Amino acid sequence: MLDLCSISHKGGIVLWSRSFTPDAAQLASSSASPVNSLIREALIEGRTADEKYEKDGYAVKWTFVNDLELIFVVAYQRILQLTYVDDLLAALKTLFIKYFEPFLAAFVASLHALNSAKAAASQATTWDFAKAFEGWDTIFDKVLRGFEEKAALERKSRLRAPVRAAVEELSTPPSDDQSTEPSVNPDTSQDEQQIARNVQALKNRLRGRGGRRGGRGGRVVDSSSGRESHPGSDSEATPKKKSKAKAQRKWGDQAPTESEMATLDFSMDKPNDAHGKLDLQALVDQSSLGTRTGDGMYEVKDWEFGADKDANDAIANALKPLDSSKPKSTIGSLFARLTGSKVLTQEDLKPVLDAMKQHLMKKNVAMDIAEKVCEGVGETLVGQKVGGFQTTNAAVKLALSNSLTRILTPKTSTDLLLSIKSKRSSALSSTQQRMPYSITFVGVNGVGKSTNLSKVCFWLIQNGLRVLIAACDTFRSGAVEQLRVHVRNLSMLGVNGAGDSKGRVELFERGYGKDAAGIAKEAIHYGRDNDFDVVLIDTAGRMQDNEPLMRALAKLVAINSPDKIIFVGEALVGNEAVDQLTKFDRALKDFSSASGAGKGRGIDGMLVTKWDTVDDKVGAALSMTYVTGQPIIFVGCGQTYTDLRQLRVANVVQAILSD
Amino acid sequence: MAGGPQSPPPDAPLPEVTLESVPPVIPEVLPPSGLLALISKSRGNALLLTGPMDSGKTAIFSRLAYTHSLPTLTSLQTNSSTISLSPSKNVRVVDVPGHPRIRGQCTEHLGDAKVLAFVVDSNTISRNGAAVAEHLHTILHSLTSLPPSQTPPQLLILCNKADMLGKNSTGSSTSTLAINRVRTILERELEKRRVSTAGGVAVEGLGEDEGDGGEGTDGNAPFRFEEWEGGEVVFLGTSAKPVEGGDEKKDGDEKSEAEDGGLAELKDWLEENM
């Protein structure tokens, strides 16, 4: 039912991935893979707070392991309601880390080489990824099958209790995962024989488990007592006997891999391999880990015993380290901080993130956005190690500033002049006439559309372009006259600068009460016939909730398909910014696609006005870019024609973060 | 329980281990003149991989660092690894993400870079030439605006995925084909950018003084890489995929690298110039 599952490093290297359908396989290897779009459109832009990302009919869910810098992604058809995906991700995460942690740690370290001294170390280990992750396929199959069967069971039977218990068993491990991970390392010191024995035992157990799970589907589950009996019986039986019986019955087809693994275990000449196997055992049962961390060392016997404990015990044990770490935290964490091994937890981060959220809101960032940004920052920080004397606060601040920079940095070109010139100079067939570059200004009432349109016009004139202003605000009295005044002023200013005999700027007007879309069309045609370079279309201000007006605007866009649609918003806006932008964007996309002009057009960029009135409370800029993902092309910051600026991301980030 | 969970971590997380292991290793690699020497020495010995998304930076990186071509996704963060070109020479390779929102990280590493490799997908360059040129423009600009005290890194343009280009062309080798194509398109696009900014009035940046200059080509001469003021620009054709026809195995391909495919050309060049 899944389409794609992948485990990758944040640096872009895929460690393991599997596609379940040919289509998905093809897609996954192309750059249009849903995972790629997830990273580009959600993760990099800081939208990590959302639970799920949808693209091209795929729903994509993901989870991070921050200290190992891994991303686990699952993609499936959006129409499917897969309830187990979250649990599956969590289980995969836990298992994968437990099995392969040393290898992964070495791998991640090799991606952070800081100087040549490290070279020797990284060169020494041979990187055999195929071998390192050998065996993971089998485990993955098992886990997935378990979840799918459970889901099927849930759908069929109305006995919810046992199912939930089972799900819990598998979903709880992730929570304790972070705290117990470090303990995996000590066992690398074990001798090979022990390791081999452990591996064998664990494998047996694994096999037994898989068989059991497979069998459960057939059996009618009879509430929680049934669940408990399985682990119990497991612990009583000698692992070997049991596993053999099971292996023949259930896993006959996979015998070759098992034997392969076994031979590999005993040969032990590959360090990576040993680690992988070793972890594998550690992963299988959470319970043993909890106890192991307690006394620091453990023996094989203990280990097996721990492995056979039942699920409840496992959960209890797994939770222990978490709880016990609390009391000694004062000294412990101080020490940890000194040695630079402090790992950030959700609890550490919460107060700091809350404070950050308040701070952002004080800077006029919309509440939803502040929340989402902080959540996203938190997600990238949990599990990370804070080095040296760096406080949690500083770490959060740094992460936040990175995140803000990412959000504000434009992902498309903001070079308006270049795109105008390239359109004007693009090759045309002889029958075609050169169309002017058209820019539409949209926005709510009174934000300064006309005023800033005239500033943009001034700038374009200064660059030697001929500009036609289309007065498509046919509603507000005085709108056309206002533009006429601007045109009069600009034509005097512009002609002075450059000695062109032709008027550099003209107004195209058709009076009031007419259809704006029609006027815009006429204006563009007029511009084409009279060799204007740019047509600036001024529209009437409208509230985002006014559907008839939004439809009219969408019609204007659909009919004329302007090269740029610029949303004009004021910097004073707070929470309203989100609503305005989402609704304008949505209305434009929905209505313009409905009227049959191909796919819907959204907003291409923003112009933030009244910037000079907000001092450093520039949160609106953040809200706006976050909502649309589009760049702020200009900032209006004064009353004269020259008061048009380009946004400097660093400045805005600094202003937002300043106290 | 209390002390238990805390005590294993110091040796568990690898970053610490590597940090601790640094000092003892230094003397082997460098003359024992202390950490300062290390820092000054390690300055400017890196190969910086940058370029637009989907051009194959991480693939090249993984080929260099792990000798495998691993499947890759869009990178979220910078990768950095050390490779040895020859037994005596170790080079740091830094792979900077190409997503427009985070590619600015490139400038952070400029100081350490000896060679800056701008990786371009030779297949899609004709479609997204303008965007690539814009990216290259910012990089050219950041190179020319380095402080004079710093020797700017050598610019290398890697025309990647050259193997996909040459399936049907038999005349010239695929890498020369890729190079010609990339060079022509980039020169054309950069020229467009130059013309549009020349004599134009840029909008001032908010609260900062104007920092954007043209490409420095004076007068009306169209932009050419040979005449770029920032130094010589080297073009190389590469491909991160294992060479076709040869052994498909990763290890096999390393040895049987044909001259017109793979990274052999890049490796040779790096060995000579780094």
From TrEMBL, chain A:
Residues 204-216, 240-249 have a biased composition (Basic residues). CDD domains: SR_alpha_SRX, SRalpha_C. The lineage of its organism: Eukaryota, Fungi, Dikarya, Basidiomycota, Agaricomycotina. GO terms for biological process: intracellular protein transport; SRP-dependent cotranslational protein targeting to membrane. It comes from the Eukaryota. It is found in: Endoplasmic reticulum membrane. Transmembrane segments: none annotated. This is P-loop containing nucleoside triphosphate hydrolase protein. One of its GO terms (cellular component) is signal recognition particle receptor complex.
TrEMBL record, chain B:
It comes from the Eukaryota. One of its GO terms (molecular function) is GTP binding. Its main location: endoplasmic reticulum. It comes from Coprinellus micaceus. Residues 206-215 have a biased composition (Acidic residues). Coiled coil: none annotated. Transmembrane segments: none annotated. One of its GO terms (cellular component) is endoplasmic reticulum membrane. Residues 202-274 are annotated as: Disordered. This is Signal recognition particle receptor subunit beta. Residues 244-255, 265-274 have a biased composition (Basic and acidic residues). It is found in: Endoplasmic reticulum membrane. It is a single-pass membrane protein. Keywords: Endoplasmic reticulum, GTP-binding, Hydrolase, Membrane, Nucleotide-binding, Receptor, Transmembrane, Transmembrane helix. Belongs to the SRP receptor beta subunit family.
